[in-house]
């Protein structure tokens, strides 16, 4: 009896704690009003997706089961948002994820770095016997030889084959053990190990351990601290870095993901003097991540006007800026309730050419995102991580995989196009 009563009360509370918007076209949306401006509402659907509704398209509103008087014209607007019944819990420390302390982060890093990962005994040490294990700073011979040079082996054989990520990591541990007294070569081994744990395996604690051992204090280490749960450590490690020198705006992206859009845009403007096409495209991505779509489009348009830099970099950034503008326009005008069930495909520009995805919609939800065609090589975990993120939040507006931003953004844009192709 008590169980049935509890279920009944939960149903009543869930009904009371939702808003209903009846649109002028006869359709109805259920969810929560997040924000109100003079002419628009920001509305969070049950699926978790946030859409923007113009007040001229709304017929009536119900908040917490109460019908609210609604009479909108361009000359007037509701100056005050209607008060809600106090049925929703207020934000408290228990409702927000507490930051992990700096001392605990350091303890985790040291414990992980000085121990072997769980998979260690299941992976055999396997590498080409032709490799030059003296690991010289400069590649031996002319041309590319991934059977001889360690860095080229890691780049072409390991990075491009997910099934070998752990194998390559174990090999670099083996190589590091040979240079305990050679600090210069050992440091290069640490850099490769940090890359393996960060970009390939997303083992943040071990990645941080080897970045610290190698004396690296850049974006990747900042991301490790952020993923481990300390935003302040992630910020502190970036202090003093005022210009993004990466090809695709890694520093700008990191400040955006940390949550400081103001700093991201400040660095983008400073970096635009050196590489405007990448800085403005990254600034657009940052604004898009923070759902400031109008500003994002403005930066993408600046990117399209910029012409300085290598031809390949210009072409790639321009293609992604155009795809992102298109993706935003699609995202702002559709909701999943208006997408028919089925499989739909979309294509967007990635690093090495077009990337194609197939999206499955079932019962107005994204149930599957599959990459069906691509020519990427250094995509790391993005082909698996990005579809999982999109499905989890039921939206393409998710942060891009660190280390493979170009591929990740292409997956987002292609997914948006695919979903748009499923409009009823």
Q: Which tags fit this structure?
A:
alpha+beta, elongated, six-stranded antiparallel β-sheet, SH3 type barrels, three-stranded antiparallel β-sheet, Serine Threonine Protein Phosphatase 5, Tetratricopeptide repeat, 424 residues, 46% helix, 4 domains, 14 helices
Brief description of this entry?
Helices cover 46% and strands 15% of the residues. The protein has 424 residues and is of the alpha+beta class.
Q: Order of strands across the biggest sheet?
A: 4-3-2-1-5-6
In percent, how much strand structure appears in the residues?
5-15%
CATH topology of the largest domain: Serine Threonine Protein Phosphatase 5, Tetratricopeptide repeat
Tally of helical segments: 14
Low-confidence stretches: 5-16, 75-96
User: What is the helix content?
Assistant: 40-55%
Order of helices and strands: HEEEEEEHHHHHHHHHHHEEEHH
CATH class (first level) name of the largest domain: Mainly Alpha
Please give the alpha-carbon distance between the first and last residues: 44 Å
Number of strands: 9
Based on the coordinates given, report the CATH architecture of the largest domain. Answer: Alpha Horseshoe
Can you describe this structure?
- The chain has 424 residues and is of the alpha+beta class.
- The protein has 4 domains: 76 residues, Roll (SH3 type barrels), CATH 2.30.30.100; 135 residues, Serine Threonine Protein Phosphatase 5, Tetratricopeptide repeat; 68 residues; 87 residues, Sufe protein. Chain: A, CATH 3.90.1010.20.
- The protein is 46% helix and 15% strand.
- The chain contains 14 helices and 9 strands.
- Strands 4-3-2-1-5-6 form a 6-stranded antiparallel beta sheet. A 3-stranded antiparallel beta sheet has the order 7-8-9.
- Strand 1 and strand 2 form a beta hairpin.
- Helix 5 packs antiparallel against helix 6, helix 10 crosses helix 12 and helix 13 packs across helix 14.
- The longest helix has 29 residues.
- The radius of gyration is 25 Å and the shape is elongated.
- The chain starts with a helix and ends with a helix.
- About 8% of the residues have low confidence.
């Amino acid at each position: 009896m008590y169980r049935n009563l509890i279920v009944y009360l939960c149903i009543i509370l869930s009904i009371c704690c939702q808003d209903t918007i009846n649109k002028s076209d006869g359709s109805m949306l259920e969810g929560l009003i997040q924000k109100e401006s003079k002419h628009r509402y920001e509305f969070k659907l049950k699926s978790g997706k946030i859409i923007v509704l113009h007040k001229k398209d709304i017929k009536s509103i119900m908040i917490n089961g109460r019908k609210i008087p609604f009479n909108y014209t361009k000359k007037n607007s509701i100056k005050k948002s209607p008060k809600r019944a106090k049925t929703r819990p207020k934000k408290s420390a228990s409702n927000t994820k507490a930051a992990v302390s700096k001392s605990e982060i350091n303890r985790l890093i040291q414990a992980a770095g000085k121990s072997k990962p769980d998979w260690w005994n299941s992976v055999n040490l396997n590498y080409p016997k032709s490799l030059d294990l003296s690991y010289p700073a400069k590649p031996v011979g002319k041309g590319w030889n991934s059977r001889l040079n360690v860095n080229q082996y890691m780049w072409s054989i390991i990075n491009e084959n997910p099934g070998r990520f752990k194998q390559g990591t174990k090999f670099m541990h083996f190589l590091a053990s040979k240079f305990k007294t050679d600090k210069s070569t050992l440091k290069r081994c640490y850099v490769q190990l940090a890359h393996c744990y960060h970009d390939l395996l997303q083992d943040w604690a071990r990645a941080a351990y080897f970045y610290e051992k190698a004396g690296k204090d850049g974006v990747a280490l900042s991301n490790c601290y952020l993923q481990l749960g300390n935003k302040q450590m992630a910020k502190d490690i970036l202090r003093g870095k005022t210009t993004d020198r990466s090809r695709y705006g890694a520093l700008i992206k990191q400040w955006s993901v940390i949550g400081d859009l103001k700093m991201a845009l400040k660095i983008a403007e400073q970096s635009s003097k050196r590489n405007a096409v990448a800085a403005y495209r990254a600034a657009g991505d940052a604004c898009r991540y923070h759902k400031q779509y109008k500003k994002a489009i403005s930066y993408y348009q600046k990117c399209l006007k910029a012409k300085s830099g290598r031809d390949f970099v210009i072409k790639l950034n321009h293609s992604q800026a155009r795809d992102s503008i298109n993706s935003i326009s699609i995202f702002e005008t559709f909701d999943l309730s208006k997408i028919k069930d089925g499989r739909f495909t979309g294509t967007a520009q990635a690093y090495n050419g077009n990337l194609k995805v197939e999206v499955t919609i079932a019962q107005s939800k994204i149930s599957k995102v599959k990459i069906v065609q691509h020519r990427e090589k250094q995509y790391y975990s993005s082909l698996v991580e990005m579809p999982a993120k999109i499905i989890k939040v039921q939206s393409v507006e998710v942060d891009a995989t660190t280390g493979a931003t170009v591929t990740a953004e292409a997956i987002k844009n292609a997914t948006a196009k695919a979903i748009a192709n499923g409009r009823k």
